[in-house]
């Protein structure tokens, strides 16, 4: 076994350490993608495709259902926390240990050790998840080769502490701009104050009562918030412009269009000069009522939780594939200098997925 | 008459041109202050004192009243508008023509040509009016030699289009800071939004009804305005901090302390985390009921107007000397590249002041 090959006979924890020791900061995933592709090409039961630094491997056993196991290869920038380090409590430290090379290791172990799964399998390894949405490798594969991603159900092995996180909330960001007229503040009645004109906007936000709809048994929790406000010209000038940046996080029973219509309605009587849609990403329904999802829930145990933040499960949802997050590690440790994962959590996830796919 | 002397036999318009051609941008007034001092020392009826680049000249005739004529020597930076230029319509163009070398020329002409005024006279020429308040030469003389500035009434020869502007409004700037707690905007209920917490502040501002009190026959006009607002951490973070900068311009029947108490009261129930006084300058009462002022009004004609912005008349007011602005030129042309003054306006002001002081 040379330095230039991944040894898929290592257990998932050892394999995670090996993956962490191969840097793959967003935009620099080629070395790791090459190793993953080569390792998968050595497995006779899989066909392997590649698009850029995205690798997709599939079984073709003619099973009644197909499930997708997906994970990203990239990490945030290394913060002096590579190579990995295993401490005396079997905790593995290092950049990507939790987000999400432990999940990738589990994918690779399932690929290597389950040649005859009870459902056809698709393994997706993609790049640039940690950067701007338009660079995201999963999005690029979805655009170029949507047929590679078809399936009945998908599991993203993002860190979820081995709990199932179903669906995800959508996010919409709008800029609300009010207009006024400049004047010297000593003669303020000669102008019109754009910051004062934003008062009804803040009043609507402060009074907003977010919905908490239950979907597929999961209680989501919406939120409508100002995330920025900016206005002012000089300390003696009545400002002619004020901008409130509003972020709406919405449950997946609303479409992108519904969400936008709702926000427009909330601020309908606020005398807004410019209403700019700055960013929009749809939510994803949990899809837990699908038979493949139900079987998955039964195999992994526990109860599903709603995913409040936006994740790539939404990309699968847009392709008509219900998806959940399920992976080792605590998401709150992601992107931190002291990122780490318990090795037993990695092995637990691997075992639960194998149980689901071989029972 | 050498280049190094001012010729006070020139008429006030010619003298203005001569003064404009001697650059005296704030901080660089020494050359002009030297010329002014030397010219005044040549006048036997005056005693002359100097403090830094501030020159004070006084008669000592034992008159029942003493009036002060004051003006600043400095200008804003030259904008390729020096030397001065007299056009075919007798309009004088150049930096300082209106603000306020024409006023200074009138002061110098009165000093030179009215050796036996009906009231004792004090002429004040000071530096650094166009820059930070703590550099202001009038303020420095007031601190070091308040006796030089005593009087019954003062006229600042700032451009007022030869209308009398009485008193000035005070100005108070406060920072109102609200506090929240950061959280990811997808889980906004885990935090507290400091921008939303500023909503009651903006509501108070938008609903505020300013007073328009009549003082000494002049209608002032207050104003309470947000001049800046800032809040926000990142587009996906509930902000923990928001700052509203509020400017209160108040009529001179309120003291600084009254004004501050009023602003505190307006926002008393707004749940403000920090209330910071950022700037405060008191207003000045018009003092038009004083006999010297009444005689002045009668001599110059027209009707007095309230001064809404803050001016150095407030410094005289603080010394117990009622003061007004009265000078040639349009204040709206001050600080502009196309700054200019009609020569007849300069001569008119000189004549009106002479009439008052010799009748």
Automatic annotation (TrEMBL), chains A, B:
Occurrences of domain Peptidase M20 dimerisation (ranges): 170-267
Per the UniProt entry, what is one GO biological process?
A: diaminopimelate biosynthetic process
* Major enzyme class: hydrolase
Entry's Gene Ontology molecular function annotations: acetylornithine deacetylase activity; metal ion binding; succinyl-diaminopimelate desuccinylase activity
Q: Which pathway does UniProt place it in?
A: Amino-acid biosynthesis; L-lysine biosynthesis via DAP pathway; LL-2,6-diaminopimelate from (S)-tetrahydrodipicolinate (succinylase route): step 3/3
Q: Do the record's keywords include Amino-acid biosynthesis?
A: yes
UniProt xrefs under Pfam families: M20_dimer, Peptidase_M20
Names of required cofactors: Zn(2+); Co(2+)
Q: Which reaction does it catalyse?
A: N-succinyl-(2S,6S)-2,6-diaminopimelate + H2O = (2S,6S)-2,6-diaminopimelate + succinate
Query: InterPro entries recorded for this chain?
Result: Bact_exopeptidase_dim_dom, Peptidase_M20, Peptidase_M20_dimer, Peptidase_M20A, Succinyl-DAP_deSuclase_DapE
**Which Enzyme Commission number(s) are listed?**
3.5.1.18
The highest taxon in the source lineage is Bacteria
Q: What keywords is this UniProt entry annotated with? A: Amino-acid biosynthesis, Cobalt, Diaminopimelate biosynthesis, Hydrolase, Lysine biosynthesis, Metal-binding, Zinc
Q: Which Gene3D superfamilies does its entry note? A: 3.30.70.360, Zn peptidases
Provide the assembly information: Homodimer.
Q: What is this protein called?
A: Succinyl-diaminopimelate desuccinylase
Please name the source species.
Streptomyces lavendulae subsp. lavendulae
Q: Which gene encodes it?
A: dapE3
